[in-house]
């Protein structure tokens, strides 16, 4: 009886060993089947490194491998490309509807002049409609009278001016004949003949220019009507138009834009008022100077000086040169030199005393910015673009300064909370609860 348990024990041990071997073979077969199904072979299997192999550092993140300066330049570069593309598209749109844009901007400038009168009448108890109508009628009547007066003066003096110009040309011809340049009468006649032939050869171009002039007149009348209607609505309903415009701005940026708008309007109003006052002073004093110098058409020239004063720097040069040329052709060299002295003296006083005193710091723009803006405005939209370029730059400067100051105040009032890893590191440590 004692041998049976031993035999049974050896049998059980053998069966157990066979079962373990069977399980190992089955597991190995399953591993081989899985490797076959996944497409891997034993050649692709990379054995783990031995214990004595050196540690290989992990590759850094590609974004972190780029130098910080290059990353900043790339971030700024694509943003500048987006802004440049936006400005290009905006310029193309403005060029396509140039007449409408210039009419509306002109209406804004006229409104900046007339709006204080409407506000004064409202304070005196006049209703909004009659106050707007009275101010607009008065303003446009004054502008129309100025245009009519200039046209009348030019038509009245055109015959005398033509005869004086002819006399001036004859004097110039005699001076050239007696000058040390040895110009002969035959050479002068050949120059005159060449001019007549050039005019005859370009008759078609002159005719087409005349037809284009008719188109310009029609477009000018259309622009004037648009400016008149826009001025009326801006004077009557400007506040509600601005409130409606604010609704188009995203809610997050609306408070800053709501404050920048009135600041921009104050800058525009100050610029237009100051420019009108300075232009009037220039026209009065230069007009008096050329009047006492006996230069013909002194009053129309003074009006031209007033109008050209709305083009900073360039307008003063053009209007002054026009007065000097008229004085040279009609009265001679001495009168032209005296006219030049009068123009330069008035413009120097205006540039160094009147403009800083009247315009103040609110609309101060660097001379380089003035020249570049006038050049760009003239290239994009001609004389109208040159007129509106400087006030646009002044308003943009005011808006940018206000939004920058507003963003700083908002950052101090509502500091930005840290995010991500910064937030984790900035979070205060919590004390363990006391037992």
UniProtKB/TrEMBL annotation:
Pfam families: AI-2E_transport (PF01594). It is a multi-pass membrane protein. Keywords: Cell membrane, Membrane, Transmembrane, Transmembrane helix, Transport. Residues 19-58, 416-435 are annotated as: Disordered. It is found in: Cell membrane. Residues 47-58 have a biased composition (Pro residues). Residues 19-46 have a biased composition (Basic and acidic residues). InterPro entries: AI-2E-like. The chain crosses the membrane at residues 87-110, 131-150, 216-236, 271-292, 299-318, 324-346, 367-394. Belongs to the autoinducer-2 exporter (AI-2E) (TC 2.A.86) family. This is PurR-regulated permease PerM. It comes from Streptomyces africanus. The lineage of its organism: Bacteria, Bacillati, Actinomycetota, Actinomycetes, Kitasatosporales.
């Amino acid at each position: 009886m004692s041998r049976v348990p031993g035999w049974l024990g050896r049998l059980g041990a053998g069966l157990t060993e066979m079962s373990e071997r069977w399980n190992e073979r089955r597991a190995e077969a399953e591993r081989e089947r899985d490797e076959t199904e996944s497409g891997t072979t034993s050649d692709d299997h990379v054995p783990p490194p031995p214990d004595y192999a050196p540690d290989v550092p992990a590759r850094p993140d590609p974004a972190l491998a780029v130098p910080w300066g290059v990353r900043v330049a790339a971030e700024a570069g694509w943003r500048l490309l987006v802004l440049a593309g936006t400005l290009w598209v905006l310029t193309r749109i403005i060029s396509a509807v140039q007449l409408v844009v210039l009419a509306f901007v002109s209406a804004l400038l006229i409104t900046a002049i007339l709006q204080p009168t409407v506000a004064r009448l409202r304070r005196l108890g006049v209703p909004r409609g009659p106050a707007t109508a009275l101010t607009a009628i008065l303003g446009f009547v004054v502008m129309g009278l100025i245009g009519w007066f200039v046209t009348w003066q030019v038509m009245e003096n055109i015959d005398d001016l033509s005869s004086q110009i002819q006399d001036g040309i004859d004097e110039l011809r005699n001076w050239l004949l007696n000058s040390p340049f040895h110009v002969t009468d035959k050479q002068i006649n050949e120059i005159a003949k060449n001019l007549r032939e050039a005019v005859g050869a370009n008759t078609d171009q002159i005719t087409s220019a005349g037809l284009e002039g008719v188109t310009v007149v029609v477009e000018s009348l259309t622009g004037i009507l648009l400016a008149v209607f826009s001025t009326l609505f801006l004077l009557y309903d400007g506040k509600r138009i601005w409130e409606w415009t604010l609704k188009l701005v995203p809610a997050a940026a609306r408070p800053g834009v709501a404050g920048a708008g009135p600041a921009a309007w104050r800058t525009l109003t100050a610029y237009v008022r100051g420019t009108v006052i300075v232009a009037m002073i220039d026209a009065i004093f230069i007009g008096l100077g050329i009047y006492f110098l006996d230069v013909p058409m002194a009053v129309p020239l003074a009006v031209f000086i007033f109008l050209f004063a709305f083009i900073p720097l360039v307008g003063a040069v053009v209007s002054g040169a026009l007065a000097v040329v008229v004085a040279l052709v009609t009265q001679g060299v001495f009168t032209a030199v005296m006219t030049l002295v009068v123009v330069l003296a008035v413009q120097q006083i205006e540039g160094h005393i009147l403009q800083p005193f009247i315009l103040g710091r609110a609309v101060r723009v660097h001379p380089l910015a003035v020249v570049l803006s006038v050049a760009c405005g003239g290239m994009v939209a001609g004389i109208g673009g040159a007129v509106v370029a400087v006030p646009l730059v002044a308003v943009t400067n005011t808006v940018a300064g206000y939004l920058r100051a507003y963003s700083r105040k908002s950052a101090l009032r509502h500091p930005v909370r840290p995010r991500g890893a910064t937030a984790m590191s900035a979070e205060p440590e919590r004390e363990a609860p006391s037992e």
